[in-house]
Backbone:
């Protein structure tokens, strides 16, 4: 998928802009023996993994993308090792700040930090593994709501809708709830209503406020 390449490159560019990281590289898989050839540190290795989502579990169409990252730093002796460890934690914080809650202007869920752990390796190197996760949405629909506000004017709210199994549309005859046990009607005041259930996944704060205004109109 071309979109996976675009998202991975955007993640790479954001990570490469973190001050203090000497080099950022893409890898196909992490192997501890490859660390023997490392010259410059701190080094960030990024391994993308694509996973297709299933309706039963996630209830939405899309592709889950995992960015498996390995931050490699050199250990020092004595007090210098403490400084190196503190510097490594500062780099991880800066990396989180650069990528977590970011969608880089793409049609994806903002990246989230999924997992972090130490990787056992030789004493001269320290390796911290961080996994960041997002969901790419290839199936999007440009949609809009129209409603009449309190002033009697027609207002329009445009948004991008992600297809999910939560979205349904049906006619519900509420007169059925007014019948007695023998089938006779107790009331004729209720009317048939059309019901829509939507799940809006990719919306901004501004869009959320617009929907709240529409709800109270």
Residues:
């Amino acid at each position: 998928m071309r979109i996976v390449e675009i998202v991975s490159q955007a993640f790479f560019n954001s990570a490469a802009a973190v001050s203090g990281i000497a080099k950022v590289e893409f890898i196909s898989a992490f192997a501890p023996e490859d660390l023997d050839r490392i010259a410059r540190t701190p080094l960030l290795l990024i391994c993308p993994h694509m996973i297709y989502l299933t309706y039963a579990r996630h209830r939405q169409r899309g592709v889950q993308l995992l960015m498996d990252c390995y931050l490699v730093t050199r250990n020092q002796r004595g007090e210098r090792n403490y400084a190196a460890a503190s510097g490594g934690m500062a780099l991880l914080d800066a990396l989180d700040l650069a990528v977590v809650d970011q969608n880089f202007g793409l049609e994806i869920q903002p990246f989230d930090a999924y997992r972090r752990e130490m990787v056992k390796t030789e004493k001269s190197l320290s390796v911290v593994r961080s996994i960041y996760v997002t969901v790419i949405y290839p199936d999007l629909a440009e949609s809009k709501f129209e409603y009449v506000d309190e002033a009697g004017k027609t207002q329009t709210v445009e948004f991008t809708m992600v297809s999910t199994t939560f979205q349904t549309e049906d006619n519900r005859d509420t007169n059925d709830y007014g019948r007695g046990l023998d089938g006779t009607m107790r009331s004729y005041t209720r009317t048939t209503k059309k019901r829509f259930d939507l799940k809006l996944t990719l919306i901004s704060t501004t869009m959320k406020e617009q929907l709240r205004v529409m709800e109270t109109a």
Residues 79-99 form the longest helix (21 residues). The helical segments are 2-16, 55-58, 79-99, 205-216. The CA atoms of residues 171 and 194 lie 5 Å apart. The mean pLDDT is 79.
